[in-house]
Predict the 3D structure of the following.
Amino acid sequence: MHRFLDEMGDTTFYGTGRKPIIGQQGVSLTFGLGIVRIDRDLEEVRREVRALEKQVENDPLLNVIPSVKKRLGTGGFFFHACKDTPDVRTVLLHYLRELPCEAEMVVARKLPHIFTGSHEGREEEFYADVLAHLIKNRLKRDSTLVLNVAERGSTTRDKVLTKALQIATSRAGKKWGHDSLKTRVVFNVQRPRQEPLLTISDYLCWSVQRVFEMGDVRHYNYLAPKIRLVVDLYDRERFDGSRNYYDKKNPLTAANKIGPPVT
């Protein structure tokens, strides 16, 4: 079983002198991870995404865009949602709308009191905790689960991923019993340029991030048939009745936009 994981937002809480910078320019209010299952032959989908990349490379209307030219000059164009212009995004968005796939995401509000209390003020611990929430329900099947993870600096080092699996295993074991956990997990960290299927999780995560960060639901609504579940992990006001779980019956709306950062 191959799944494809990417992140949304960043894990940054503090700047120089441990000054909180959540929500400032270039620093997100939330951090999340998404996992995607693709229900078609993976090699066929890879070829199709690469063909779309070539389409952008060869399109004289698109290949002169600075962000496209930059990638062309450093190894070839690949899709990257937050850096792509709207007309470049449209190329892949239309493809994703028709692609048989399904995503689940866990979004964590960047709350300093949780970061210092539960994660010891360490970004790697924060990442591992969110990842553990994402994979803890996938450990009962008697098979090998290959988690293809988009490389993101120190947070995707082996020790962080191993820690996340340990946390997930502990939580799942308490829920179902350790004897029922039969899945063998393999982490495969890759650069998005080298694995075009990570582009799919990147775009789906980006569409959800825009809801939480900006209240923009246009892209989320367009891709919503592909997004099975979004968990707003620390929305304690909606814990009762699992109202912090968003699916096709309870979709995200502009009201899910996160307010000013907590100081």
Notes: The beta strands are 2-9, 30-38, 101-109, 144-150, 184-190, 227-232, 245-246. The mean pLDDT is 94.
